[in-house]
Amino acid sequence: LILLCWRITSALFKEARMSPFLPSLQADASQLNALLRVFLSLVMLASGLGKFQDLSGTRQALRDFGCPVAWVGVAALALPGTEIVISALLLVDATCQAAASLMAALLFLFCLGIGRLLSQKKAPPCHCFGALHAKPISRLTLARAVLLLTGAVAC
Questions:
Q1: Is the N or the C terminus of the chain less surrounded, counting Cβ atoms within 10 Å?
Q2: Which of 122, 139, 105 lies closest to 63, judged by CA?
Q3: d(CA 47, CA 53)
Q4: Alpha-carbon gap, residue 9 to 21, rounded angstroms
Q5: What is the DSSP string of 25-75?
Q6: What is the 8-class DSSP label of residue 92?
Q7: 46 Rama class: left (phi>0) / alpha (psi -120 to 50) / beta
Q8: d(Cα 37, Cα 125) in Å, to the nearest integer?
Q9: pTM above 0.90, yes or no
Q10: For 111-120, what is each residue's pLDDT tens digit?
């Protein structure tokens, strides 16, 4: 259902961007895309800053999600740093497509990790937003990640 909604929305945005006969729809699509980029940028910024504020929780979450122990220290710094960089790049027209693709890839990996843990009946704290939000993962966590992934792909 989410993929179907994304395809319909994506098709409408692409049609609106390419159609010279629908200037008002084109402007609306451009405004919606700008709002989506700002929203996704704020989500990534909050996520990255939250993880930096709680590095021990970020390291624990990486271990819980199956990150190799040797990589945890570097990943605990690289992940929030990457999220903050993506946040900034989403706001620049020249880099927004690359940033959205990187965000989609990151969220896809999160979805895989969350899905794997849920299938094993495990529910460690996600630390998705670091110190801001550290509740145990659930189907709602997965749904939120899929929704954000859909937004990144539509961007």
A1: N
A2: 122
A3: 10
A4: 19
A5: HHHHHHHHHHHHHHHHHHHHHHHHHHHHHTHHHHHHHHHHTT--HHHHHHH
A6: S
A7: alpha
A8: 27
A9: no
A10: 999 999 999 9
The Cα–Cα gap between 136 and 75 comes to 21
Give me 79's structure tokens.
């992940």
Task: Calculate the dihedral angle through the C-alpha atoms of 103, 107, 110, 114, rounding to the nearest 10 degrees.
Answer: 160
94-153: per-residue pLDDT in tens? 999 999 999 999 999 999 999 999 999 999 998 888 877 778 999 999 999 999 999 999
Q: Give CA–CA dist 94/97, Å, rounded.
A: 8
Cα 31 from Cα 46, distance rounded (Å): 23
Amino acid at 138: S
